[in-house]
Design brief:
two-stranded antiparallel ribbon, 22 helices, about 45% helix, disordered N terminus
């Protein structure tokens, strides 16, 4: 992974402006002989230059923005064919390769498993490095970039494990980039978030919004950025609950008890919506409607229909299968070998009239509920926080009936039936079906309460599949039925043993062979999908 130095075209735009206006001044020689450098006053003026890199970082966390279908294609390969599938949210109407593809754990037939890895360095690290280099007098901008980098980086290490992090390609040039231990990277996340929050406090106290024109998440509101940073710290603290419970408790309590607080209302949700008059198109719209490839998953059908969840109709469209005598919703089971993709196109499409969310109030309440269940100081009891998580999710999506939903003690996920291929069916007798109910029962043991929290959390964080996949690996909940067939080279993977990570891209073995070999050693296992990550210790 050798990164070439990046020279943005905007450098030349800003360079030509002073040349045209002051071509006869004494500075002409400096501009003429150093075309790749700009005086710091031009770079920092109105944050225009820095704002461009800051905005690009935001757009790259979940791949939004851009022109044409570029963002949708990136989103599909980075998110949809990874977390969205492995987390149990979406199914695909066809296969991309007869020998298998990423949906059936075959990473050699296609090379999509490297897209997220390479995009992180191209779109996040490179822009972060540029901001750090030129934001000499803008510590607030550096702090924001630090928060976004953590948000993006934790997704990547949660996909792969150890990665090059502290010294990347632009630092070492042709010598490549060394891999860093996953635990060391994770602990740096907490330090970076704390540093960023400390920096932003003084700006937040003044109500300053110097990045308002470039901020596609919070419109430049630093108070909300601090709440997000604290909430992200809480998420990451919970991720290490099984590998380092003492540190997890410490970091979680610090996040919840920070003076600026955490996200508690949907108005503070981290939504990547756009800035100014520019509103981003949900990339799932293209994947579901234009491409006719992404549909509701079999797992989502099972849980939402079984629970009679009112969010079902807000997230998916009814199927249009000719044989259905009544309107119903149908999901596709992953790992399905599809001979004729046209037969699955009539399954339930996605509704996409919303913008993507990095982190929501409902997720924060579920994190706090789990923390309270573990005996941590989360500012409330587990039941109260669990019920608030469900309520906030209903509010977020404009669904009614949260009170009745929470009072239901009988509904459970329903059996799954594939009208095209009965081999994909999941019956109650299969042992693959969840039996979890909704209503809180304080008499339940720890594990059953945890499963209840994680089941509702899994529903509420939709469509953030990467987070769903990470929490599923960390806890084993909710109980999902895995892919039907494994066409990859890791025989451990099955319905009962779902994928744990993405293998490193083939390009690393060509361009960074010595370091990726050391990275596999840090991983503690083979570079295959069944090797568990550092925090996956349950």
């Amino acid at each position: 992974m050798n990164q070439k130095k990046y020279i943005d075209r905007r450098w030349f735009v800003l360079l030509l402006l002073p040349l045209c206006l002051f071509s006869c001044t004494k500075n002409f020689k400096d501009y003429n002989t150093n075309p790749n450098a700009l005086p710091i006053e031009f770079i920092n003026r109105d944050n225009v230059y820095l704002g461009g890199f800051f905005k690009k970082m935001q757009e790259s966390v979940l791949a939004v923005g851009g022109t044409g279908t570029n963002a949708a294609n990136a989103y599909q390969r980075i998110n949809n064919l990874c977390g969205d599938i492995y987390g149990g949210y979406h199914g695909m109407t066809h296969n991309w390769n007869a020998a298998g593809d990423q949906t059936t754990y075959n990473f050699t037939a296609v090379s999509w498993n490297g897209v997220a890895f390479n995009s992180f360095y191209t779109d996040i690290v490179r822009n972060s490095d540029t901001i750090n280099k030129y934001a000499v007098n803008n510590p607030d901008v550096k702090a924001l970039a630090k928060i976004i980098k953590v948000e993006a980086a934790h997704r990547i290490v949660d996909m792969y494990g150890p990665i090059p992090y502290f010294k990347t390609g632009t630092t070492l040039g042709t010598f490549g980039s060394p891999y860093d231990p996953m635990d060391v990277i994770y602990y740096s996340f907490f330090k970076d978030l704390d540093t960023a929050v400390t920096t932003l406090k003084q700006y937040a106290a003044l109500g300053a919004k110097p990045m308002a024109n470039f901020d596609a998440v919070y419109g430049g509101d630093y108070r909300l950025w601090i709440k997000f940073a604290n909430s992200l710290k809480l998420r990451l603290a919970m991720r290490i609950a099984y590998v380092d419970p003492d540190k997890a408790k410490q970091y979680a309590e610090e996040a919840v008890n920070n003076e600026f607080g955490i996200i508690t209302e949907n108005s503070a949700n981290a939504v990547i919506g756009g800035s100014g008059n520019i509103k981003y198109r949900n990339p799932l719209d293209i994947l579901s409607n234009a491409y006719d490839e992404t549909r509701m998953s079999a797992n989502m059908e099972s849980f939402l229909k079984g629970y009679k969840d009112p969010r079902l109709a807000l997230w998916f469209e009814a199927a249009t299968i000719a044989g259905d005598t009544v309107s119903t919703y149908r999901g596709i089971r992953n790992g399905n070998i599809i001979a004729d993709g046209s037969k699955y196109i009539p399954f339930s499409k996605l509704k996409t009239d919303f913008q993507l969310t990095w982190l929501s109030a409902s997720e924060v309440y579920f994190l706090r509920a789990e923390g309270a269940l573990r005996g941590w100081n989360m500012g409330g009891a587990a039941q109260q926080l669990y019920e608030s998580g469900v309520t906030k999710s209903f509010e977020q999506w404009g669904a009614s009936g949260a009170t009745a939903y929470l009072a239901n003690s009988s509904n459970t996920p329903t059996e799954y039936s594939d009208p095209i291929n009965s081999d994909n069916n999941v019956a109650a007798t299969s042992g693959l079906l969840s039996t979890m109910t909704i209503k809180w029962n304080d008499a339940d043991n720890f594990e059953k309460k945890l499963e209840r929290i994680l089941t509702q959390k899994w529903i509420a964080v939709y469509p953030n599949g990467q987070e769903a996949w990470s929490e599923y690996r960390r806890t084993g909940y909710p109980k999902l039925f895995g892919i039907k067939r494994n066409q990859g080279n890791d025989g451990r993977l099955s319905e009962a043993y779902p994928i744990k990570r993405l293998p490193y891209p083939a390009s690393e073995y060509i361009q960074n062979a010595v370091n990726v070999t050391k990275g596999v050693q840090l991983l503690g296992g083979t570079d295959l999908g069944g090797t568990k990550l550092w925090w996956d210790k349950k």
